[in-house]
Amino acid sequence: MIELLRPTHVLSAVEELPQLLRETTGIRLVAFDVDGTLTEHHATLDEPVARTLTKLGAAGLDRCVISNAYGERVKELDAMFTPFGMPVFTPAKVAPPGKRPTSCRKPSPLMIQRAAADHGVDPAEVLMVGDQIFKDVLSARRVGAQSLLVPRRGPGDDLKVRLLQRPPEALVRVALGIRFPSNSHYTDGFAILKADMHEQMKVDTTPLSSAVSLREAYRACWATRKSKIDAVAATIVLAIPSAIVALAASAYLNASDLGGPVRLITAAVIFLAIMVGVARLPTKYCRSVVRLQRFADANHAAITFDRAASSDQPGKIFQRPGSQNYHTKIEFPDSTVFGEYSYLIGQSHSARRLRWVYARFRLPQHMPNILLDSRSNDYFGVFSDLADFVNPSQKLQLDGDFKKFFTVYAPQGYEADARHILTPDIMQVLKTHAAAYDVELIDNYLYVYKKRIPRFGCDNPQVVDDILKAGSAVAGHIARRNDYASRYNERRALEMAQDTGRRLRSRFGLGVASLAWFLIPLVIIAISIIIYDALVSR
Fold first, then answer.
1. What is the pLDDT of residue 266?
2. What pLDDT is attached to residue 305?
3. The domain at 2-194 falls in which architecture?
């Protein structure tokens, strides 16, 4: 039964299909799924996929679309694929009279049978291309057609598919030994040629997962003032309660006239309690200090731990008013900087600490201040984690589906500059590599930010590797492919460097994100009271 879920072919991208067809015989009709295969979720075709469809048509191959789409999406697909001469088959179009369209949705083979009949071919001569095993592959296998499985295109997905279908599909791929080829010319199913990509930054992260001895951690405790405070606190917290318990036991035993031995035992217990407190001094932070120092040494970088960090960096997160700042910074030989920056906002019991992991890359020339706020890390999918940092009146609208990934801000008067910098290929790189991060262009730097969450700090190997690779891919592509310099002469660049208006206006204070944390509980309480009153009044 599980063999019905095994695809005939596996590729890393639709763009590799012409090569597969040159090596395969017996295919006369290629049927494509759309969302997640030819486009990102409910998006439009990008240029490389359009070129692939055109190339297949020029080779005399019949093509069509088989999709479970309904409603307005069907009209969008008709308009999208009519220029390519590709008919669109949907459940509503192929459902027999008296039969519900939902019964014709994949994995039903009815749409493939209808497409084969309309094109005068046998179902065995059809190749079904899709990204879902339980729909595209299974529908093809049920009718005897060939199937091609490709990775999902883009991060978006239908919620039901993401929760109920993708996890079982991952297990099926493991059970059947299905792996997407690693020697592809494309990256993660996106039409980004590796030859055009800037080589991503590679660092040795093995020291970040190495073991740290008690002696090494103990020495690291005194590297910064923060560690010393932690050390004293640990001693007090552990030693004093242990001493109180020991004294209470001593008083109880002294009442039994045990005398000298009791005093000796009491002194030994207090001493052991203090020793336990001292042994506990190397906290998680101290062990992190050791690993980061090893990481810096292994990559020939310089590392600093600064507690009173009045940062001189121009990025937005460094301009936020706060207190008790901590800054861990690792600077590599090529001037790339990676680190963690944190600060305290608010007062007394309402204060909270914000922590950011970031990477900074040097660009060849000055840029206007452009902030790309990732939509993937918004609170509840609505409230931005950068809402406190920038005035919303500077929001910039870009064409296409880029707004599904980033909210873009540019200074007034520099909107045209931002559009010239964010060319379609650079936007594609941002979507491919940096969709999980906030990105900022300012002066001659590119910053990549990620708000830190517990257990994912600057000493986490995966975090370090991901953020450095994402940032280096974007920075390298901007440096190599951007035609910004050719569009603007040196005078414009000089005006920009001298114009303070090229910086985004900030909006520090309560902010939307902070306001959300305050208002949402109130709204929930108010709704609960209304529902309770309605139930009681019945």
1. 64
2. 81
3. 3-Layer(aba) Sandwich (3.40)
